[in-house]
Amino acid sequence: MAETAIEEGETNKEMEVAPALIAVHPLEKSVAVAAGAELRVFDLEGDSPVSLLDDSGGPLHADSIRAIRFGAKGRLFASAGDDKLVKIWTTDSWRCLHTVCSEKRVSAVAISNDGLFVCFADKFGVVWVVSLDGEEGNQPLVNKKAAPILAHYCSIITSLEFSPDGRFIISADRDFKIRVTIFPKKPFKGAHEIQSFCLGHTEFVSCLAFPCTPDYSQGFLLSGGGDSTVRLWDMTSGSLLHTCEVGVQAELVESNGDEVCHPAVTAICTFPVGSLIAVAIQSLHGVMLLNCDLSSRILSVAKVVSMGDIFIATSLGVSSAGRLWMITGASNILGPNFTSLARVKVLAGFQMSSNPESSENEPVMLEDTDIPGGEKVLEKLQGSLLSAKEEKALAAATEAVKMAMRNLLIKKQYSEDRRELRKKSRNDRKLKQ
Amino acid sequence: MSQNNRPDPKMNKSTHLPRKRFYRARAHSNPLSDSHFPVPITPSHVDYSLHYPHFFPSNDVISTHQATSSGVHSKKIQFADIGCGFGGLLVNLATLFPETLMIGMELRDKVTEYVRERILALRKANLGQYQNISVVRTNSMKYIPNFFEKGQLSKMFFLFPDPHFKEKNHRRRVISPHLLDEYAYTLEVGGIIYTITDVEELGEWMKACLEGHPLFEAITEEELKADPIVSLLISATEEGQKVARNGGQTFQAVYRRIAVSEEE
């Protein structure tokens, strides 16, 4: 039995599939996609694909990219992943300003709202900070030194965010925890003061987002997790305000025999205006829209936008133009020779005025030719326009992403017998015999 | 040894306390491995009626989290012995602070089992006493926030922890700069953290971690002398007694949780 365990471990290694990611410039000036190790950017404002400039030589990223994001003002962009590199780009010229080396694989990245700091989290649960001040992009500094500021004890950090007011840095992990830490003025000395822990998820936490609150003081937090729920928190106190069982509501929770499979929430996106939230769920062909009522503190399902049977979004991006950008796909699912697959779709027509009286727009799916920039945007971001056969392969890709995520973040359950058996085969016991 | 007809041979015949030889465990346990014990989702899910039936008569209808929020049972655990081992300190503190709820946290299942039996036996033999101590098997390096709210604890004990000599394994040490953030979160301002070890290198490490942390300050010599708990760190713990028996040295660091200084 021990042998089968080892074999399982090896196949898991091959199954290390990274989901395709998407990030949209806050003013929709550009869109970025990460598929495997490849970073693709399209300049929507200039209507042209972007060639990234990196003076460090060699490939931009040598392994799967795990996190991409624009800064709050859209001036900066960061990418990081399994090659243990964090690259910080200026979006004016798309030149790499810094390449930061991490000791471990990077699982999440965040840019402070003032653009002065970049924080990243590694797979051992440590959050690091790098400072960007004093440089206007003239002198790219390779190998900037990062300092550790906080840690989740030996847990994979799945998501990292600065609160909209910049007071807190929020980190979520696979041990069901969300930690809200005060982001200090001098972060290089460490972020020691924990504001709260948001506890309530019963599986790994996968994503964090902030509802937009023009009339409410800041302090609300949204999270999604492996337990198929989206939760609303008061992050100042850490109290759970409401739980929306999105998996149950979309009838996605399957039980085969005694094992209940909860599809994980993989992404949450909030819009700059309005109460709608977009949620991506594994095995949901489309995207779920929730209504987030902050006065009564209730999350409710507004609508499920269905997208045929080949589109399970792996990542979401949103812009001030009221469009939701979605991507599905994965890195080398069929081995290293196979190129990554990605498919981008856009949902448009989200209400972008704060006036609730304005006519209620229904979000509509855009045809490929109607998305901003047209088909050449897809050609850049997807790598190519997919053939029908490749579209079919996407289903396999999302299934592989789902398996990889489960293997990475869900604790393996062994039966009592098996644990005893493994204890017996411990090395120190063997020597005695 | 001698098989008699007593129902439980694991208990000492005269004292009715559990016999350690039936609860032997390895001295070390890997805090990094994924564990298989249940963990409370939040501190309000900690079942106080299970740990302290004397203080929390089990009213099945009133689940503890409703009870605590409505203020019926406002009593909360205040002392935590992290890595309590065989529970020597808890047993001594139980009678010294009879109205304070305390919990021992231990990673090794057999050792936890021993302490549980020991407490039950003590409660039986001394009616009305030892009702304020309990033990739980958990990995306190991972799950402290699941057991205690912000500022809930007034004292935390880290007595004779695993030294983890190899540099590679320093991240397994129970006192580390990053874990101190979590301990500071759990301790009330003014709360005290007690550490002691017989390993000089670890003693220096723990002291350096506490000294370098902005939320802790060292306690003065006079205060240490006035604190009745300090002498118990050696005399009450099984590890401390062992060190004393062998004439070994100990290295302690006792620090107070302070409020954040605003000028930074």
Automatic annotation (TrEMBL), chain A:
Biochemical pathway: tRNA modification; N(7)-methylguanine-tRNA biosynthesis
Record GO biological process: tRNA (guanine-N7)-methylation
Domain of life: Eukaryota
Coiled-coil residue spans: none
Main location: nucleus
WD repeats: 61-99, 198-243
Role this protein plays: Required for the formation of N(7)-methylguanine at position 46 (m7G46) in tRNA. In the complex, it is required to stabilize and induce conformational changes of the catalytic subunit.
Protein name: tRNA (guanine-N(7)-)-methyltransferase non-catalytic subunit
Organism expressing this protein natively: Protea cynaroides
Lineage: Eukaryota, Viridiplantae, Streptophyta, Embryophyta, Tracheophyta
Automatic annotation (TrEMBL), chain B:
Protein's name in the database: tRNA (guanine-N(7)-)-methyltransferase
One GO CC term on file: nucleus
EC main group: transferase
Reaction(s) catalysed by this chain's protein: guanosine(46) in tRNA + S-adenosyl-L-methionine = N(7)-methylguanosine(46) in tRNA + S-adenosyl-L-homocysteine
Any Pfam family: Methyltransf_4
Pathway info: tRNA modification; N(7)-methylguanine-tRNA biosynthesis
Catalytic residues (UniProt): D162
